[in-house]
């Protein structure tokens, strides 16, 4: 069963929605226009229930199949938010908002799931219930987490959840997936070293925080090099080093470090957090200074369930003829919170040879729409086949 004919028919309409969303990007939880558009479309399609305000600006639609003999409920999730990037594509439907841009293709994700919702509302050729989930604030705001915290999974009795992301560099409409850990846990830290500032010509009368913090930057690299099992993945990146003085002749009183930690398992995540604190405390003590470490836990590791991943790959093969093994990705994904609550799977769909996501020249490839929509529809029709 390849691409569904209905999506070839709907492609131009879905493309119009996509470009309209592209032109009107909204950041984090501020997806007011996009959420209203989604809710309006879902009502127009004849969804059995449309609820707004889940996870602040999230939208949920419910579509009942022509039968419901087993009480099965599947959740399908798309993200709606844009990024704080100034678009440079020069497209005739480029962002009309300065400093906001759909540079991660969430415009395409939203349009494709709307397309699938339209088809599923028309045909209802399945035995069970579909819950379409449109979340805000994937790009660092935890909109998926807030939708879960609002009780979405229990309220609609969702039993398994599926997600999809476009992927530049993959042939358009081709799929890739992997079971188990897939996207990294993304944590951040602020570290403030405190010494004793003074004259740069009299270092013996100071406690030099610059030297202290420089030692810490290097020592933090030993978390990956010496603490982690070499077959495990951990990235520790110090991304900011800020001294409290910019003068040539002053040893600064404080140095602030900032950075990110990416890990692929709960154990590695706990280990890295513990070591960041231990190393900084130890370095400060060694040099006679003080330190304050603030560690922020972001998105957890996104883990695909084995059974749902097998099934999702089978569906992808039925749509596109093939499904590749995806690599581990050290980026984060808010869908991780939904996969912590329910079994499910997250798949990549090829965006062709375009700029990378988060690049000011990136654009979602509308040629991926038929494959993406067909995968959504087939997930439902194959997982909950009508008699
Ligand atoms: Zn992104
Ligand atoms: Zn994204």
UniProtKB/TrEMBL annotation:
Identification of the protein by name: Hippurate hydrolase
Stored CDD domains: M20_Acy1-like
NCBIfam families per record: amidohydrolases
Domain Peptidase M20 dimerisation span(s) in chain numbering: 189-281
Presence of the UniProt keyword Hydrolase in the record: yes
PANTHER family hit by this protein: METALLOPEPTIDASE, PUTATIVE (AFU_ORTHOLOGUE AFUA_6G09600)-RELATED, PEPTIDASE M20 FAMILY MEMBER
InterPro entries: Amidohydrolase, Bact_exopeptidase_dim_dom, Peptidase_M20, Peptidase_M20_dimer
Record carries keyword Metal-binding: yes
GO biological process, one term: diaminopimelate biosynthetic process
Protein residues bound to Mn(2+): 104, 106, 139, 165, 358
Cofactor: Mn(2+)
Cofactor comment text: The Mn(2+) ion enhances activity.
GO molecular function, one term: metal ion binding
Organism: Ruegeria faecimaris
Keyword annotations of the record: Hydrolase, Manganese, Metal-binding
